[in-house]
Each structure stands twice: as C-alpha cells, then as structure tokens.
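FIELD: query
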Amino acid sequence: MATNVITIQDSRNAATRRSFSADCAYWSHSGFTHDRTGLFLPEEEGGRYAGQASVFQDLGEGILQNALQGYNATLLAYGQTGSGKSYSMVGYGPNKGLVPTLCDRLFQAIKGNQDSRQCQVFFSMLEIYNEQLKQIFSKESITKQSNINLVDLAGSERQRASGLEADRLKEGTAINLSLTTLGNVI
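FIELD: result
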C-alpha cells in the first residue's frame, strides 16, 4: 500500500498483481502501539499507521466545517464485511470513530456559539447516522440548517470467495442487490 494505491498480489502466483486507487486509503494493520487508556498511536513518527484522528482529519473535518456553514453532507462507508467500515464510523473504546468525534466537535462548536441550555436541546435531538443540526442567530436574524448523513452500509460480499452457503448466501445476495441499487441511485 502506497499513498492511495493498494496493490494485491496473488499468494499462489507472485507475478499476478492488481492495483486499485481510492480517494483515501489508510493502513491500520500494524505499526501501532497503544497508551495506558487503549488509544492506538503510531509506533514511529511519520510511520504508515493511520489512526482514527487521521481518518477524521481527512474525512470528518470537511463535513464538520460544511455543516457549520449550513451545507448538507453525506459520508458513505462501503466495503466487504470485516473491512473496517463500522470501526471507522463508530470506533471502539478510546479510539473514537467519525460519528462520535463529529458529534463531539459539533457540540463544542455549538456550545461556543450558544448558551449551554440550548446545547442540551441539541444533545436530546441526536440520532446516530442522521443528524440535523439547526443554528439560529437571533442578533442577525439568520438561521443555518444542515443535514449530516453518516451511513455505515452493510458489507458487500463476494459470494464465491467468501464460501457463503444457504441462508447466508441469500443474505449476501440481498445485501449486494441493495448496494447495487444504491450505486445506481448515486
């Protein structure tokens, strides 16, 4: 894996390689340690390990800034089962994913602009993966409203390679059909 290009080599034939490019690609399989709270950290400065903070910096920061300006935003996590979609979106323990980090930062920004009583109202309106955060500035008579959709899609399955059978095969087929339909809509 180099920058945003991932190369896969066939373990049975070293000459067979396939490369894929993506907008963002993150290495999280090795090259990390953890502190006493369980937070994953790079073993070395400038190493290739990318933690949740890196993912938020690249993907979540722009969504946050646009939402605060009143623009709508959508982030879709898509990929095969076990590829890390839910971990990137939600995280685990002290390694907060996009959703909790975005919520924390959003409420910090709201609290900076409004009194804490109004901020509590926003906390009570929270619905994971489908946020509506509306700002009213009474001095200027301005209302800003944006929708943030953070979608953790079901895994896409390569049925032959995954060895799915019977009911699991039917479920995998249904997942793929719904993802294909979503792709056509997008």
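FIELD: remark
Residues 166-185 form the longest helix (20 residues).
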